[in-house]
Specification:
The complex is a heterodimer of chains A (about 500) and B (about 500). Chain A is mostly helical. Chain A has helices spanning about 5-10, 15-30, 40-65, 80-100, 110-125, 130-150, 155-185, 190-200, 205-220, 230-240, 240-250, 250-265, 285-305, 310-330, 330-365, 375, 380-395, 400-410, 420-445, 460-480, 480-485; strands at about 70, 75. In chain A, a hairpin with a 4-residue loop joins β1 and β2. Chain A is globular, with a radius of gyration of 22 Å. The chains are: A mainly alpha (about 500), B mainly alpha (about 500). Chains A and B meet through α18 and α19 of A and α5, α6 and α7 of B.
Chain lengths: ~500, ~500
């Protein structure tokens, strides 16, 4: 008989607990002390409190070296999941920093606490090996994200985006739950490791296949992989820019971490194979198809976008394709390469959205032509933009390049005959395509001239500091990737 | 010591970025001093190197141990030749763009960033590091052309950037595949070029990987039929941009072909030797033929570059010592001569007349109005035609000698290319400077600005370099020859007939 030791739970979930307390502090401070103050002041104080909470939670998670497994995998704490939590918290801090200059809402306390609530969901998501907990945490985080998308009440597009995101998300949750229930039925457990034992020797029965496909569909929605990506461009475009940054960064890191975990721990024995001329049915070929479609469609569609946010959305779809290659390779090297890629991608993408949000505030829109002459109107900002976009395009010596190199070389190393090289060739070809659309934004910023009377853009100090720090990290992780890989 | 060429140049970029926006004069001086310092370091470092035949390590420290990448800079004779070329091209390019007034500091910042990347490629003996520097040059190239260029600049710049990027991605595929296979054979991850040059990659693997990597690099070397970025890019670029494109960037491609593709996959080269030679000769003849019928002065030089780079590729394809010697020497020679030709056309002629159309130039009698430009172009033309006394002769002669023993028929065909080369050069000299068409009334109110001191310095420097190497080729051959002759060098596998027994 297991007796529940609440103190132990609280100890293991200390980082999450700290963030939860922070939510309460931020909310009550905004409702009491800050009442009647200007939005900017409320944002600054609220952000300060939220960041303090996140940083102390991150420090705690970073310093402890605990290995624990509570309630048969319901709550799993180990250095790797702790480091992913640190990454998620860091991404949250950056998201908060780029929101502080926002004018899209006067519900500051609610906005900040929803970001933190989403973060808590993501933190629980990465520290579990149980399907039930995965589902609860995922939905908890998603609910926060839906509301964050709808947060700009002055903009119809924001409401439309949120509704679309919500409906698609709800549907994907249904798929996921259906798949999980079948898995439970087949194996008799919701614990990933026990599921793996439960399905051994059962062969490839149709129920398992259905479970597998619905799981891929459910997570395909969450990470916006083709053909389950349709919500992403609208959500990214309509949502307040910092919310879009959060959807594209923190949520992505957690989703990929848990996706890889589910497949590598839960679906042992039904991997199949996606190597050239060596196809075997299983989850690998399914993921391979989704990955290939995402890379091709995401990159090709991004070319024709006129809005920077939609362009970033399609680029996110394309990048999800690259990351899925890391999932389907299913080796320790590819898993750590994928996490390196996801984390550096998330940092870069927050940065790119941060620049977009400043430009949007200053010029009234996020069309690529609004970036014209940015290098003259805001030289520091456009230098940051250049670093972020070139990193997304995979130009050395930035983090995006070295991440691609790690990822692709790990994928090609699988097996003995370069069997997955075809996927890497596709990925590299598509990444050459991607260079074009990133360069188009840079062309507007550096080559085209703004209209003669365009004033210099004043970049809010806090946002600029965050962006400069992000740009520095992108360069640093590109030049010295060892700083990050040692934890993965 | 040589590593400082890279560091000094990038320090120059940083200093330029910190300068106030509107001080064009300071920007020019900083850029020039940086380039001169880089050039001097290149010269002194090259002369100091004791054994040009061996690879002399400059610095080697672990960079990313998990994939076997080192920060590994080193040099052998071939690097030395190209580093010196880069130094000369950098200085002369700045002298020929002394008149840039629009956003001067940004122009020179991009310019020096490009030069720094080029130095880096020529000195890297780690595959990943080489690739990093190689890609680092793409962005400055794009902005130099798109921002400061002329005719259809945005089109030319994007085309060049995309071609470069596609090329480098072909290289990346090959590089990752080679890394994985080498890891299997060596038992540890390695990106060290010298170590990899000893790995015997499976022959079937070499047969498909080699063309990928070779073509990836050769796109930038202007190999026909992937050359089409070159004429449009050269024409669209500002003067210094075209000088660097033709002078050093095309050499990056050829250098990559030799140092990476051919050294790693000798069996692949032997398999594809004929195809490379055929494409090279096609480029020689096609480039020359197209140059013969251009109306735009700069297109003539642009296509002539394609033609001359054909000789480099032909030399590489010979796989014998004399042909390879010639190929490397031709890289140097073409870098100097093409730089000079673009300098005359872009700076001396176009910046003054604002036209490059032969129909207009014919009526201007430029030979009389700006005699220095006329004389410089004649000398550069003579050098470009390959007359004895200039570097082009020694280089192309060796390439042809090397090629004769392997592909006699193709060699004869390439001779046709040389003849057409004489024709288009003479045509350009005549139409551009010494036409006997009836002159238009000269506008005495606004005479052309006289040739500036900076231009004179730049022109004399480049003519001098070509002449010195033409008269004393031994100066460079002493660096190049030992690289191919030594049985211990990384190229030894390439030259042994029959390959890797």
């Amino acid at each position: 008989m297991n007796t529940v030791n609440y103190l132990q739970i609280l100890q293991l979930a200390a980082p999450e607990t700290i963030v939860t307390l922070t939510v309460l502090v931020v909310l009550s401070a905004d409702l009491t002390v800050l009442r009647g103050k200007s939005i900017a002041a409320r944002f600054n104080v609220g952000a300060l409190l939220a960041i303090l909470g996140c940083v102390s939670a991150a420090l705690l998670a970073f310093m402890r070296h605990t290995e624990a497994n509570l309630f048969n995998g319901l709550l799993v704490v180990n250095p790797s999941s702790d480091f992913v939590k640190v990454a998620i918290l860091a991404l949250t801090v950056f998201t908060i920093l780029i929101s502080t200059s926002g004018k899209f809402t006067d519900h500051v306390g609610e906005y900040l606490s929803l970001i933190l609530l989403g973060t808590i969901g993501l933190m629980f998501l990465v520290s579990t090996e149980d399907l039930l907990m995965v589902f609860i945490a995922l939905e908890f985080a998603s609910l926060a994200l839906y509301i964050l998308t709808a947060f700009n009440k002055h903009n119809e597009k924001s409401a439309e985006a949120a509704l679309k995101y919500f409906l698609f998300g709800g549907m994907s949750a249904a798929f996921l739950l259906f798949g999980f229930s079948l898995l439970y039925g087949i194996s008799g457990s919701t614990n990933l490791r026990e599921i793996a034992i439960g399905i051994v020797g059962k062969g490839f029965d149709p129920l398992l296949l259905v479970a597998l496909v619905t799981t891929v569909i459910g997570f395909g929605f969450k990470v916006a992989a083709v053909p389950f990506h349709l919500w992403a461009p609208d959500a990214y475009e309509g949502a307040p820019t910092p919310s879009a940054a959060f959807i594209g960064s923190g949520s992505k890191v957690a989703s990929f971490y848990i996706l890889a975990k589910i497949f590598t721990l839960g679906f042992v024995g039904v991997e199949g194979s996606a190597v050239w001329h060596g196809y075997l049915s299983g989850w690998m070929p399914v993921v391979a198809i989704v990955a290939a479609l995402s890379m091709v469609l995401g990159n090709l569609t991004a070319i024709v976008q006129l809005s920077a946010k939609r362009m970033l959305a399609y680029s996110a779809i394309a990048h999800a394709g690259y990351m899925l290659l890391g999932v389907l390779s299913n080796t320790p090297a590819s898993a750590s390469a994928m996490m390196f890629y996801v984390i550096t991608y998330a940092l870069t993408t927050i940065g790119a959205f941060g620049v977009v949000s400043v430009v949007e505030e200053a010029t009234g829109g996020d069309a690529i032509k609004n970036f014209a002459g940015l290098s003259k109107r805001a030289p520091g900002l456009s230098l940051c933009l250049m670093i972020f976009l070139l990193s997304l395009g995979g130009i050395p010596p930035l983090a995006g390049f070295i991440g691609k190199f790690f990822l692709f070389s790990a994928v090609v190393s699988v097996g003995s005959n370069l069997g997955l090289l075809w996927l890497v060739i596709l990925a590299i070809a598509m990444s050459a395509v991607s260079f074009y659309y990133y360069l188009r934004v840079l062309k507007a910023a550096y080559v085209e001239d703004a209209t003669a009377d365009a004033p210099a853009i004043k970049v809010p100090l806090l946002t600029f500091l965050a962006l400069a720090l992000l740009a520095l990290l992108v360069i640093l992780f590109g030049v010295a990737p060892g700083l990050l890989t040692q934890f993965l | 010591m040589l590593a400082w060429t890279i560091y000094i140049t990038f320090i120059g970029v940083l200093v330029l970025m910190l300068l106030p926006r509107d001080n064009a004069r300071a920007a020019r001086i900083v850029a020039l001093l940086t380039a001169i310092a880089g050039c001097v370091v290149a010269f002194v470092g090259a002369i100091q190197q004791a054994n040009p035949g061996d690879v002399t390590t400059i610095v080697k420290v672990p960079w990313i141990p998990s994939i076997g990448a080192n920060y590994y800079l080193a040099s052998d004779g071939i690097s030395l030749v190209l580093v010196v070329l880069t130094g000369l091209a950098a200085v002369s390019g700045i002298l020929f763009s002394w008149n840039i007034e629009k956003r001067t500091k940004e122009f020179f910042a991009f310019y020096l960033a490009l030069i720094g990347g080029v130095y880096g490629v020529f000195l890297s003996f780690d595959l990943l590091l080489l690739f990093v520097f190689y890609e680092l040059t793409i962005i400055p190239k794009y902005f130099l052309i798109a921002r400061w260029g002329s005719t259809r600049k945005e089109y030319g710049a994007m085309k060049l950037a995309l071609y470069s990027f596609v090329g480098s991605h072909l290289v990346l595929i090959g590089l990752i595949a080679a890394w994985v296979v080498a890891k299997g054979q060596l038992g540890h991850a390695s990106l060290d070029l010298i170590e990899l040059s000893k790995v015997a990659f499976p022959i079937a693997f070499q047969h498909w990987v080699f063309p990928l990597v070779f073509v990836g690099f050769a796109i930038l070397a202007g190999m026909w039929p992937f050359h089409t970025w070159a004429p449009t890019g050269h024409v669209a670029a500002p003067t210094a941009g075209s000088m660097l494109l033709a002078g050093v960037v095309m050499k990056l491609g050829a250098y990559g072909c030799l140092r990476v593709a051919m050294v790693l996959f000798p069996e692949g080269v032997r398999e594809w030797q004929w195809a490379i030679a055929a494409l090279a000769v096609a480029g020689i003849i096609y480039g020359a033929g197209v140059a013969l019928v251009q109306r735009d002065f700069k297109f003539v030089i642009g296509y002539s570059s394609v033609s001359h780079m054909g000789f480099v590729l032909l030399g590489l394809a010979t796989l014998n010592t004399i042909g390879l010697d010639g190929a490397v020497l031709q890289m140097f020679s073409h870098g100097i001569i093409a730089g000079l030709l673009f300098g005359v056309v872009g700076r001396m002629v176009y910046d003054r007349t604002h036209t490059r159309d032969f129909n207009d130039l014919e009526t201007m009698q430029l030979g009389k109005l700006i005699p220095f430009a006329g004389v410089t172009f004649v000398i550069a033309g003579i050098a470009s035609m390959g007359l004895p006394g200039f570097s082009g002769f020694v280089a192309e002669f060796q390439v042809l000698m090397g090629a004769w023993t392997v592909f006699p028929k193709l060699t004869i065909l390439s001779g046709v290319g040389i003849l057409i080369g004489v024709a288009y050069t003479l045509r350009a000299v005549q139409k551009g400077f010494y036409s006997d068409a009836p002159p238009k009334a000269v506008d005495h109110e606004h005479p052309f600005e006289p040739i500036t001191v900076a231009e004179r310095f730049g022109a004399v420097m480049l003519i001098g370099a070509s002449l010195v190497i033409g008269l004393f080729p031994g100066l460079l051959m002493n660096w190049i020859e030992p690289c191919f002759n030594s049985p211990l060098s990384m190229f030894a596998r390439l030259l042994v007939k029959g390959g890797s027994q």
